[in-house]
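## retry 2 of 3
previous attempt timed out at serialization; input unchanged, resubmitting
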Amino acid sequence: MSDLNNDLRLAIDTGKVSFGNRSVMRQVSSNSAKAIVIASKGKKEIVDDLMHVCSVAGMRVIRFRGNSVELGAACGRPYSVNSLAILEAGNSKILEEEYS
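## retry succeeded, writing output
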């Protein structure tokens, strides 16, 4: 099993990723995202909205074990990241792996 942090960085470095709740909602609504990653300890109403939209769209949701600051650090960003959309995986296997 692969490490989610490593796969995230590889997807960001070699693929195409969109950060932020509004951007993720747009990507999911337009069906351009292949999967989304959500911080597990994010704001409940935002997480619930994203989960609902993804379930309706039939999109894969990857839950990051940690808060938005930890997700931002895993992505190599100096700010908190509550959610991100994977548009192209690049050299990462993030779309193929199962994370627990």
